[in-house]
Amino acid sequence: MSTLTKPSHIGRKISRIRELKDMKQEALAEALGLSQQSISNLENSETIDEDKLIQIAKILGVTVEAIKNFSEENMINYFNTFTDNDFSNSQGANFGHVNACTFNPLDKLIESQEEIKKLYERLLQAEKDKIEYLENIIKTK
Length: 141
Description:
Blueprint: H1 10-20, H2 25-32, H3 36-43, H4 50-60, H5 64-68, H6 72-80, H7 105-140
InterPro entries: Cro/C1-type_HTH, Lambda_DNA-bd_dom_sf
Pfam families: HTH_3
Protein name: Helix-turn-helix transcriptional regulator
């Protein structure tokens, strides 16, 4: 049978996506309310009803179209698009134009530490004010 007329084996695609997501059959089975053996049978099926496919796609965090169009070749091509030039730009990591980081995480960490320091200073001053107030009450009695 030529590859052009070979039927799409949806069960194998689900199995491969599940493996790429580092999910065991037991976890998928539990999420679907099925047994592990049922998942094994499902992954050996060439076709799956649309409602079940929608449930599986939701659990795997992908679209039904992603499952239907999944191929190892597409995955290899996808990951080969990440070249060394894609991993850096003038603002930091770019990671293939997906959610480019526009700030320096270390700067954010330092900012948060400064905020914490200011909060502690305000808390300390409030405690000092409270002690002074209480001392004044004691002195007046």
